[in-house]
């Protein structure tokens, strides 16, 4: 496991500000993780009540994003951080945006769950939905764990898993397209499931983005738009 050596400052308040920033992000991340889990459960089990709760939580996630943005801005203005401190503030600012967007996608899944319940069809039997949902939930959990422990190895695992999620999404889409062609009466129901799958795939994309921000935070490497092979090469070369 990698360590992030944040500078220790004469000002205890500065140290506290940086630790509070980390804590606040993990709290927001925990909320989004629960939101994603509940949205997947809601659409898998045709649970309209749980889906409604996911929609309510979104407002609080948005408020957390605003509060964290303000906190980052205040630290930049008052402390003028450098080196690892600056990377921490910048990474938190970027991760916050991705977390909020993950919440938006969870909200879309919840809305699809409500539509399926109202249609009276539910989504039981869609193995693709459950399978992709499990993969995405694992990514989100590992991503938060990587940030909490400043763990580059776990962040790399999340980035690699995104490729698998993309493959699962494409495979599921093909299966459902075939199903709709065989039974045109299912088109409306299956389209809702496909939109939910698309949102899950995007949640995986945001988890990968956050994994890349964690690598930048710990190693100082900007690995956006970089292949996995090249990222691994850069990490081997960077102590």
TrEMBL record:
| Domain PhoU residue range list | 25-112, 129-213
Could you provide one GO biological process annotation from this protein's UniProt record? intracellular phosphate ion homeostasis
The family note in this entry says:
Belongs to the PhoU family.
Q: Where in the cell is it found?
A: Cytoplasm
Subunit composition? Homodimer.
Instruction: Give the record's keywords alphabetically.
Output: Cytoplasm, Phosphate transport, Transport
Protein name (record) = Phosphate-specific transport system accessory protein PhoU
Matches recorded under Pfam families? PhoU
What is the first-listed, main subcellular location in coarse terms? cytoplasm
- Taxonomically, the superkingdom here is Bacteria
The UniProt entry, under SUPFAM superfamilies, shows: PhoU-like
List GO terms (cellular component aspect): cytoplasm
Q: What does this protein do?
A: Plays a role in the regulation of phosphate uptake.
Q: Which organism is it from?
A: Marinibactrum halimedae
């Amino acid at each position: 496991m990698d360590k992030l050596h944040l500078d220790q400052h004469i000002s205890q308040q500065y140290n506290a500000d940086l630790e509070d920033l980390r804590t606040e992000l993990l709290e927001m991340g925990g909320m989004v993780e629960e939101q994603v889990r509940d949205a997947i459960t809601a659409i898998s089990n045709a649970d309209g009540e749980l889906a409604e709760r996911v929609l309510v939580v979104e407002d609080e996630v948005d408020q957390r994003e605003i509060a964290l943005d303000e906190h980052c801005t205040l630290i930049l203005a008052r402390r003028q951080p450098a080196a690892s401190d600056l990377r921490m503030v910048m990474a938190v600012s970027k991760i916050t945006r991705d977390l909020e967007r993950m919440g938006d996608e969870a909200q879309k899944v919840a809305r699809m769950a409500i539509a399926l319940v109202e249609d009276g069809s539910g989504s039981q039997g869609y193995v693709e939905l459950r399978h992709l949902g499990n993969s995405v939930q694992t990514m989100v959990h590992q991503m938060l764990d990587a940030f909490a422990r400043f763990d580059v190895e776990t962040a790399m695992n999340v980035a690699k898993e995104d490729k698998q999620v993309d493959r699962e999404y494409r495979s599921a889409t093909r299966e459902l397209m075939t199903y709709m062609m065989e039974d045109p009466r299912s088109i409306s129901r299956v389209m809702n499931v496909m939109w939910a799958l698309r949102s899950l795939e995007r949640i995986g994309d945001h988890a990968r983005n956050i994994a890349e921000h964690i690598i930048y935070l710990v190693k100082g490497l900007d690995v956006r738009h970089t292949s996995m092979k090249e990222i691994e090469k850069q990490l081997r070369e960077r102590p």
